[in-house]
Amino acid sequence: MATPRKSAQQLAAREKAMAKAREMTERHEKLIELAAEFFQQQEQADLVRAEAKKKADALLAKAEADARNAVRGAATTVRAMLDSGEPKSSVAARLGLSGAELKRMLDLITDETPASPASDQSEERDSSHADGQDVAA
Q1: What's the CA gap between 122 and 117, in Å, rounded?
Q2: What is the dihedral of CA 96, 100, 106, 109, to 10 degrees?
């Protein structure tokens, strides 16, 4: 049997090296594709979380506004009970509120209501009285 020539051995070694290099290149390209897919999925997860947080914040804000409106309605009911002539202590006892809680409820609706006509009339009286003094002077 004849021994292979040196150039044939070199050619075989070169082909084997090229095949190994192609295999490594294909593997690296596959890993690059998988890494890109990974980062896309991570970005998608971040977007989903951000959107969910935005929706949750909006839902909480609406719930808080609805709760404030309900408390104002309760405060209006307390005011109606007091306007019926019931003493504060009796209303507080009936509703299971402390005096401070009852006052806070009433403060809620008095802070939001515009000046009453009685206070407008007293201001008019004060200004007309002041005008009367200017005329007399």
Answers
A1: 9
A2: -110
Write down the pTM of the prediction. 0.52
Average pLDDT of the residues in 82-96: 94
In whole angstroms, give the CA distance from residue 26 to residue 36.
15
Question: What per-residue confidence (pLDDT) applies to 5?
Answer: 73
3-state SS, the chain, equals: CCCCCHHHHHHHHHHHHHHHHHHHHHHHHHHHHHHHHHHHHHHHHHHHHHHHHHHHHHHHHHHHHHHHHHHHHHHHHHHHHHHCCCCHHHHHHHHCCCHHHHHHHHHHHHHHCCCCHHHHHHHHHHHHHHHHHHHHC
Phi-psi region of 5 (alpha: psi -120 to 50; beta: other; left: phi over 0): beta
What whole-number distance in Å separates Cα of residue 82 and Cα of residue 89?
10
Q: What is the mean pLDDT of residues 51-62?
A: 97
Query: Which amino acid is present at 77?
Result: T
pLDDT at 32 over 80: yes
